[in-house]
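Practice problem: predict the structure.
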Amino acid sequence: MNKNKNKNKMIDISSQSKRKSNKNLLDSDKLKDITYEEAIEKIDAILTDMQNEDVPIDKLQEYYILGNIYIKRCQDLLDEFEQEIIEINYKENYKK
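Answer:
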């Protein structure tokens, strides 16, 4: 019974480590340097890899997390772009 408890502890620690690693990617300045096109390419690569039937479940979890990080980056970039368009239109309408 103790062996099972220790095994579960190791799994929990491993999962926490992966979450911290992925969270660091989300919080890092490197993510801010990724363009929309680069993020889309990474998402496409992740989707291609996920279609492989031999991918271990841990890797699928990692891909899921990374995919969501890149999707969020794309959404943030689109939101910034939309705000710029709104500001340009606002300035154009009130110059007249």
